[in-house]
Amino acid sequence: MADGVTFDLGEPQRAVARKAAGRGLCPECFGRVLGRWGHGLSNPERAARLAAELDVTATADPVGCPVCGGLFAKVDLWADRAVRAANGYEYRRFTCGSRWDPERLAVEEALWGDVGSGWGESARAAFNRELGKKVEVRTGAQGGSEGADVVFLADLPVGRVELTVNSLYIRGRYRKLDRTIPQTHWPCRRCGGRGCVHCAGSGRTYPTSVEELIGAPFVVASAATGTRFHGMGREDIDARMLGRGRPFVLELVRPKVRSLDLVGLAASLGPAAAGKVELLEPGWADGSEVVQIKEAAPEKSYRVGVVGAVPLGKVKEALQLVSGRTIAQRTPARVAHRRSDRVRARRIVDARLVDEAEGRFTLELRTEAGTYVKEWVEGDAGRTEPSLASLVGAPLKVDYLDVLEVHDTEAT
Ligand SMILES: [Zn+2]
Ligand SMILES: [Zn+2]
């Protein structure tokens, strides 16, 4: 007996094998009737052992096999189809799946019942595994269920392999130094991106975005078909994003090239991004980080320029009063069309006056995630209570707003 092989048949397994013999099964399908009994043997090897021990044989002509119809004799052909489907795509890890005619799988289920086997291995699992082995040999890539770059789906009735190319994920932090750029690409609302009179044929609401400025060199280098940009929240278009920048994950859709020089690419954002957007700390991410980044709710620090004719003593007093306190914010009028209208409790962690001039002053504040800072300063017609305007008893107007820091890590 070879090392690591166990296949000691008891009377129940012998009975199963005798019943399964003579049903025209191919060696692969015959061996698989006891596929989960013992270990260390391929299914055809199991069939050979059964033949030697019990004088029962599999059919010599696999095409007539009632379970697979000769499929397991054609795994090489399917491996060729898979490799061809992924031609031009770089991949190191892959997963194999298959779509079966349900009637074939039902034949197999019925067979196990007829012969009384509780040790059968499903044809689908066996086929996926055998296909994976062949693809490994042809490509040097590694098969398995974890972290696949591509997924092969063998559509058996149709005779074709469908290829799914998984996205590539890159994390980083961005700084935005310009007050005219949205975080993500906004297709024109009128035409949905096709181009119309309203958008002068461009299909867009804004000329560019953080997503596009950062994504451009990565799309070119990876030959991806597009991007999705997942930011840890977003700032208003007219707000700058300073400090260490805002964490994000850039998703490259259907990339052909996966070996990218991230640092080199980050340094090559180019003239289009110069003075507008910077990419810091680029690194590899995986899909699960998209969820983490979407669920994160870090505190943020802001600098706010405010216009208003108010005695500064009153402003200081109000800021002291509100620091460390919770405010009530009803969904701002400006976002009510896309967020449910309700009142949210938000904490102003800290607020202080840092600069002052005639008729204007500058605040720095740190707030709980989800605080609408502009509305907290101006009051939003009473929808935020208390607001800074209500506390000082005078109308205030936000002149500009910068995000100074996203406190997602305890470094700050
Ligand atoms: Zn078969
Ligand atoms: Zn348009």
Write the layout of secondary structure elements.
Elements: H1 11-20, H2 27-32, H3 43-54, H4 75-85, E1 93-99, H5 102-115, H6 123-139, E2 142-143, E3 150-155, E4 160-165, E5 168-176, H7 210-222, E6 226-231, E7 240-253, H8 262-266, E8 277-285, H9 288-295, E9 299-307, H10 312-322, E10 325-330, E11 343-357, E12 360-367, H11 373-378, E13 384-385, H12 388-392, E14 397-407
Parallel strand pairs: 1-2, 1-3, 7-14
Antiparallel strand pairs: 3-4, 5-7, 5-8, 6-7, 9-12, 9-14, 10-11, 10-13, 11-12
Helix pairs in contact: 4-6
The structure holds zinc ion (2 copies).
Description:
This protein has about 400 residues and is α+β, with helices and mostly antiparallel strands. The chain is built from 12 helices and 14 strands. Strands 5, 6, 7, 8, 9, 10, 11, 12, 13 and 14 form a 10-stranded mixed β-sheet that branches. It is elongated and about 105 Å long. The termini are far apart. The mean pLDDT is about 95. Bound molecules: zinc ion (2 copies). One zinc ion binds near residues 26, 62 and 67.
